[in-house]
Design brief:
Elements: H1 3-29, H2 33-60
Helix pairs in contact: 1-2
Length: 77
């Protein structure tokens, strides 16, 4: 497993935990501090996923060239 996949999995697990806290807090007491904490945890994990995806995409790009060449163009070897 590479570093990015572990980070993605941890952030998805954080979202799941935040969702559980949010739903339990909502059913037990309505809009309480616990519910707000669950919602904040979900939002933080979503932002973390977006940042991780952005940095992973930047790292995947090739340096100085097109990573997906046009198949209609002849290869220059």
């Amino acid at each position: 497993m590479n570093r990015e996949s572990i980070t993605f999995e941890a952030l998805f697990a954080g979202q799941l935990l935040g969702t559980l806290v949010f739903v339990v807090g909502l059913f037990l007491g309505g809009l309480t501090t616990v519910t707000v904490v669950g919602g904040a945890l979900i939002m933080l994990c979503i932002v973390g996923l977006a940042l991780t995806a952005l940095t992973a995409e930047r790292n995947d790009r090739s340096v100085g060239g097109n990573s997906h060449p046009d198949p209609a163009e002849p290869a220059s070897h």
